[in-house]
Every structure is written in structure tokens, then in C-alpha cells.
């Protein structure tokens, strides 16, 4: 199947990003030690320069904006490789390839594009996206955070929770229920400046992931900060939400693939009762099941990515299946490899304890497995 789907060009690209990650990222990360959360800025700058020279900058961003302009399928193949290091799940390639910006930013007014989007394409810091709310997660039809228009300005009030990348992002994107001067309520997107008066509270999740609660109590925005039309918010987010699930799924698989390799190496070396762990049938079964499950999950991710590229009608359904399969499978694989490592797996000498926690979170991130089940069955009933 892999032979059929991967062109020679894509195989070459995969090889290039694999050696980039192994040659440049992993050694820096190993030198930095197991407790460090990101590489020092000069090191990241050097990696970014190397990546740009090789045309490996912003994989998913259009080439006319300065990105690599890869298709979704190409991106999932590449992403699976570049996450294969200690903090690769959250910072693929330790930030070497930059953070993509959502495609709906094409709807920005030209002055916003010049001021925020263009510089961010250069810096690669990306943006944060504040959607979900504490009261009604995963339900964008029921937003309580609002922006009310009075005398030409939008007065934003409310709260958003578990927002990622607030600390690094060049700017933010906010989805609110806009209330127009005629009293109509419509979901709308706005761009947030780093200097806007927004309350922030840090939340550390399972001591591996930083997120923020955002409070809007005195924010006033000019209409020029609007992205797209009033009421276009959810529709503009649709493609981004679907593609993000597929791209995140590829990252989960990359981590699980690396964990499996680490597990196999360890089991060949670790001797108990006179022979390597890899000779015990119970251990061998764990590897065989992991490989089979990973391959099945990978094909569901590839399937979703191809459907995204072809704009198939059922792409959102395929993306949900991919996210469900990839997050659940990756969590199981890392759990097994931890078990095979015994006590050694729980130390920071190997990244398994970190990946175990990150993948535990992945089953809730974006859409939880339970809400994915709900949406998948809903699709089947309505088909
Ligand atoms: C690491 C991380 C990063 C995140 N990043 C961002 C971000 O950048 N921007 C952003 O806007 N949001 C972000 N989120 C928010 C995220 O999408 C929500 O946390 C997630 O949707 C779950 O919402 P909740 O935590 O409020 O759980 P709840 O909605 O309270 O759910 C609690 C439990 O009930 C289950 N449940 C809920 N509804 C149903 C249902 N209808 N049927 C069956 N079971 C149900 C859930 O599956 C879950 O197990 C992030 C979350 C995490 C964990």
C-alpha cells in the first residue's frame, strides 16, 4: 500500500526530513538534557536557517506566502517523521520548520495581513486560536463569549479555556458570538494583538503541556480586526478544524512509531532470567499487536489526508476516524512500551513517561474520543 501511495519525490522528502531531525535536532536535544522544555533561541534560529535553506519552512503554508505549500497527504507523511524526538509532539523538529498559520487568514483585511500574517510567516511562531469555552466545549453553536457592537467598536466579554501556544504566538484568533447593532447574534472571528488587554491564567496539564485560560473584561476591538464577514466564523474554521485533527493524528503516530523502535531496541538488550526480553512470547505479542494497530491507524490518517486534498464530501468524517484511531492507538503503544521497560520507563532517561502523559491528553485534545464517537455515529445515522 505504501509503495502505491508514496511517490519517489515524497519518499525523498521523507528521507530528507528524517535525516534533518536525526542529525540536527536529536543531538541538540540530547545535549540539552531531559528536563529542558525547548531548545535555546540561538539553537532554534540556527535550525530554522538550515530548514529554510532546504525549502523545509512552514510545510502547510501556501508557497505564495513563503511556505513549502505541501498537500495534506505530504504533510502527514512528513510530520510523522519530524516529531520523532523528546518534545516533538508539541514542537515538531524543536521549532525548526516553523508553525503554520491557518488558511482562513486569507480572509483578513490587507492591513491585518501586512501587520500580523506576513511577519509571522517569517518568524514561524504561529498564532493561538481560542475557540472552546469552559461551559460548552466541542459545541461551537453555543458560544457564550461575545463581542457586542456599539458606536462602531466591538466590546468583547467572556472566557476561553485550554488555549495552546499563547506564550509563543505572534498573535491570537478569537471566535465569539458577535452581537450586531441590530441585535443579531452570529459567530465571528477576530484577530488579537499581543498587547490587547486580555487576562491570562496559566494551566499546566499533567506537567507536560502548557495552556491558558483567557479572560475578556475590557477588550474593545476596531472592526478592522474582524477576519471574514460577520457570521462567517464557524464556516471559516471548518477546514482548519478538520485538517488540524488529521495533522495532529500524524504527530501521534510518529511518537508511537518512535516508542515502538525504542521498545524493540530495549527488549533486545535487556536480559532477564538469562535471555533477552524480546524472546518472551508475551513481549513479542505486544510488539506485533502494536505494529498491526499502528499500520491500521496510519492508513486511516492517510485516507483522511487524501480526502482533504480531494475535498471529498466525507473528509470531516474521515478526519474524525483518523483522530480517534491515531490517538487511541498511540496511547496504547506507548503504554505497552512503558510496561516492557519496567521501572526504567518511568524515569526521564527515556522520553516514554513524557509521551505517555502527552498521549493521554491527546484523547481529549480538540475533540475527545467520546464526542468523536458521537459525531461518527451521527454521520452513519444521517447517511
Ligand atoms: C492539551 C489541550 C490543548 C488544547 N488546546 C486548545 C486550543 O488551542 N484552543 C481551544 O480553543 N481549545 C483547546 N483545548 C480545549 C479542548 O478542545 C477541550 O478541552 C476539549 O474539547 C474537552 O473539553 P472539556 O475539557 O471542557 O471537557 P468536557 O466537555 O467537560 O467533557 C468531559 C468528559 O465528558 C465527555 N463528554 C462531553 N460531551 C459529551 C457528549 N456529548 N457525549 C459523550 N461524552 C461527552 C468528554 O468526552 C469528556 O470525557 C485544548 C485542550 C487540551 C487538553
Automatic annotation (TrEMBL):
GO molecular function: medium-chain fatty acyl-CoA dehydrogenase activity
The UniProt record lists the keyword ATP-binding: no
Cofactor requirements of the protein: FAD
Uppermost EC category: oxidoreductase
Acyl-CoA dehydrogenase/oxidase N-terminal domain segment(s): 7-86
Record carries keyword Oxidoreductase: yes
Entries under PROSITE patterns matching the protein: ACYL_COA_DH_2 (PS00073)
Record domain Acyl-CoA dehydrogenase/oxidase C-terminal: where: 231-373
Assigned protein family: Belongs to the acyl-CoA dehydrogenase family.
Name this protein carries in UniProt: Acyl-CoA dehydrogenase
Organism of derivation: Ammoniphilus resinae
Amino acid at each position: 500500500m505504501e509503495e502505491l501511495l508514496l511517490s519517489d519525490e515524497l519518499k525523498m522528502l521523507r528521507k530528507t526530513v528524517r535525516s534533518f531531525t536525526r542529525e540536527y535536532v536529536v543531538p541538540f536535544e540530547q545535549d540539552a538534557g531531559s528536563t529542558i522544555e525547548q531548545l535555546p533561541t540561538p539553537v532554534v534560529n540556527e535550525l530554522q536557517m538550515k530548514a529554510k535553506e532546504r525549502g523545509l519552512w512552514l510545510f502547510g503554508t501556501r508557497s505564495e506566502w513563503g511556505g513549502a505549500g505541501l498537500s495534506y497527504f505530504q504533510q502527514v507523511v512528513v510530520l510523522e517523521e519530524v516529531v520523532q524526538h523528546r518534545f516533538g509532539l508539541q514542537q515538531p523538529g524543536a521549532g525548526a520548520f516553523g508553525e503554520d498559520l491557518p488558511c482562513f487568514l486569507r480572509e483578513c483585511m490587507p492591513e491585518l495581513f501586512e501587520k500580523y500574517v506576513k511577519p509571522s510567516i517569517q518568524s514561524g511562531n504561529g498564532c493561538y486560536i481560542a475557540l472552546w469555552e469552559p461551559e460548552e466545549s466541542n459545541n461551537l453553536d453555543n458560544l457564550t463569549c461575545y463581542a457586542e457592537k456599539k458606536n462602531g467598536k466591538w466590546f468583547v466579554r467572556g472566557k476561553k479555556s485550554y488555549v495552546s501556544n499563547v506564550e509563543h504566538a505572534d498573535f491570537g484568533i478569537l471566535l465569539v458570538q458577535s452581537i450586531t447593532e441590530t441585535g443579531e447574534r452570529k459567530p465571528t472571528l477576530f484577530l488579537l494583538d499581543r498587547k490587547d488587554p486580555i487576562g491570562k491564567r496559566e494551566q499546566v496539564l499533567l506537567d507536560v503541556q502548557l495552556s491558558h485560560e483567557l479572560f475578556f473584561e475590557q477588550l474593545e476591538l476596531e472592526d478592522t480586526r474582524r477576519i471574514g464577514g460577520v457570521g462567517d466564523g464557524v464556516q471559516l474554521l471548518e477546514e482548519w478544524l478538520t485538517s488540524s485533527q488529521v495533522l495532529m493524528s500524524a504527530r501521534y503516530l510518529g511518537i508511537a512509531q518512535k516508542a515502538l523502535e525504542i521498545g524493540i531496541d530495549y527488549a533486545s538488550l535487556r536480559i532477564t532470567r538469562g535471555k533477552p526480553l524480546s524472546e518472551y512470547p508475551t513481549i513479542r505479542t505486544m510488539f506485533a499487536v502494536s505494529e498491526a494497530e499502528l499500520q491500521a491507524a496510519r492508513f486511516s490518517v492517510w485516507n483522511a489526508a487524501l480526502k482533504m486534498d480531494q475535498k471529498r464530501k466525507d473528509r470531516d468524517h474521515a478526519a474524525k476516524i483518523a483522530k480517534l484511531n491515531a490517538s487511541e492507538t498511540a496511547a496504547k503503544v506507548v503504554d505497552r512500551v512503558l510496561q516492557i521497560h519496567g521501572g526504567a520507563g518511568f524515569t526521564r532517561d527515556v522520553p516514554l513517561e513524557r509521551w505517555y502523559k502527552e498521549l493521554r491528553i491527546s484523547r481529549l485534545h480538540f475533540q475527545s474520543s467520546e464526542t468523536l464517537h458521537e459525531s461518527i455515529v451521527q454521520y452513519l445515522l444521517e447517511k
